[in-house]
């Protein structure tokens, strides 16, 4: 996924598009959820091996988002005062939360509105 984001004309815009796309798909697809989020919420609390994989994957995702946000800051796509590390963690947490909400049958238009509001906080003021 990150290779495709890095290669986009604007990796930050591609991240935004990806986050907004969480609302897409059929109700059955949204109800199925995301393997990563399902493993995080259902298996990691009781399985140390799964928890270790989730931790490692989270660190890699955060680093990738941090790189994209640093580049976006240089292009003026996000606020210059943005702390890339904190914002990267925010993006990962937002994706997880949206995936859980999608699985819980939150309406697609509500998911898009939530994502749009959250992403607007990253943009230049």
Set out the fold topology.
Blueprint: H1 2-7, H2 11-20, H3 27-32, H4 35-43, H5 48-75, H6 84-103, H7 108-120
Question: Fraction of residues in helices?
Answer: over 70%
CATH architecture: Orthogonal Bundle
Examine the coordinates and then state which fold CATH places here, giving the name of the CATH topology.
Tetracycline Repressor, domain 2
Largest sheet: none
Protein described:
By secondary structure, the chain is an all-alpha fold. The chain has a single domain, classed as Tetracycline Repressor, domain 2. The chain is 74% helix and 0% strand. It contains seven helices and no strands.
Task: Write a brief caption for the model.
The protein has 125 residues and is an all-alpha fold.
Summarize this structure as a short list of keywords or feature phrases.
single chain; 125 residues; mainly alpha; Tetracycline Repressor, domain 2; 7 helices; 74% helix; 0% strand
């Amino acid at each position: 996924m990150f290779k495709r984001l890095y290669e986009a004309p604007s990796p930050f815009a591609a991240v935004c598009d990806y986050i907004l796309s969480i609302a897409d798909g059929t109700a059955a697809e949204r109800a199925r959820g995301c393997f990563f989020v399902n493993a995080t919420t259902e298996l990691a609390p009781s399985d140390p091996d799964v928890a270790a994989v989730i931790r490692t994957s989270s660190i890699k995702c955060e680093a990738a988002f941090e790189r994209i946000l640093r580049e976006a800051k240089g292009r003026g796509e996000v606020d210059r005062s943005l702390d890339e590390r904190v914002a990267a963690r925010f993006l990962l947490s937002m994706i997880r939360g949206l995936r859980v909400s999608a699985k819980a049958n939150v309406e697609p238009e509500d998911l898009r509105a939530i994502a749009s509001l959250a992403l607007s906080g990253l943009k230049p003021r």
